[in-house]
């Protein structure tokens, strides 16, 4: 911020100097033109410095991500053959490993599928839930802004201890 103030002061002083010098030399119109050019050029230079400073300081000065948790649920059928607290499935779609799960979205159930890369699974909660990264907020609004995606992204899945089973064959075709 101090750099921008110094740039603004130097640009204003230079513009005044050009205007006064040309006015004393008998050409105030040329002095006014060169002063205006100096002010515009200084504004562009100051804007570039501010942009570069913001982009370079964003990772250093501070921002934080916001998160939202959401409970996992299971669907049941008429025969009650599906049951339990939650459903977290894994499998492959087009050669890519995915997690499949259901959430309660305020009166209706939504199925979600997400790639397994970057998602951490914890066996630590009696009530299963997922954690979404919902955005990014700057610790210094107006000075530093978040660079990158602001879309919702799954980052964690929490399930009850010892609830992850492996090597199960469902016989589905």
Write the layout of secondary structure elements.
Layout: H1 2-24, H2 28-61, E1 63-73, E2 88-93, E3 96-104, E4 109-115, E5 120-123, E6 129-138, E7 153-159
Parallel strand pairs: 5-7
Antiparallel strand pairs: 1-3, 1-6, 2-3, 3-4, 6-7
Q: How would you classify the helix and strand content by structural class?
A: alpha+beta
| Strand tally | 7
SS field, number of helical segments = 2
Count of distinct structural domains: 2
Helical fraction: 25-40%
How is the quaternary structure best described? single chain
Give the termini distance in whole angstroms. Answer: 64 Å
- Return residue spans where pLDDT drops below 50 for at least 5 consecutive residues: none
User: Which range does the strand content fall in?
Assistant: 25-35%
Report the principal-axis shape: rod-shaped
Order of helices and strands: HHEEEEEEE
Biggest β-sheet strands, sense, barrel: 7 strands, mixed
Question: If you average the pLDDT, what whole number results?
Answer: 74
Rg, Cα atoms, Å: 30 Å
Task: Report on the architecture of this protein.
- The chain is α+β, with helices and mostly antiparallel strands and 173 residues long.
- The protein has two domains: 2-61; 63-159, no CATH class.
- It is built from two helices and seven strands, in the order ααβββββββ.
- The chain has helices at residues 2-24, 28-61; strands at residues 63-73, 88-93, 96-104, 109-115, 120-123, 129-138, 153-159.
- Strands 1, 2, 3, 4, 5, 6 and 7 form a seven-stranded mixed sheet that branches.
- A hairpin with a 2-residue loop joins strand 2 (88-93) and strand 3.
- The chain is rod-shaped, with a radius of gyration of 30 Å.
- The protein starts with a helix and ends in a 14-residue tail after the last strand.
- The mean pLDDT is 74.
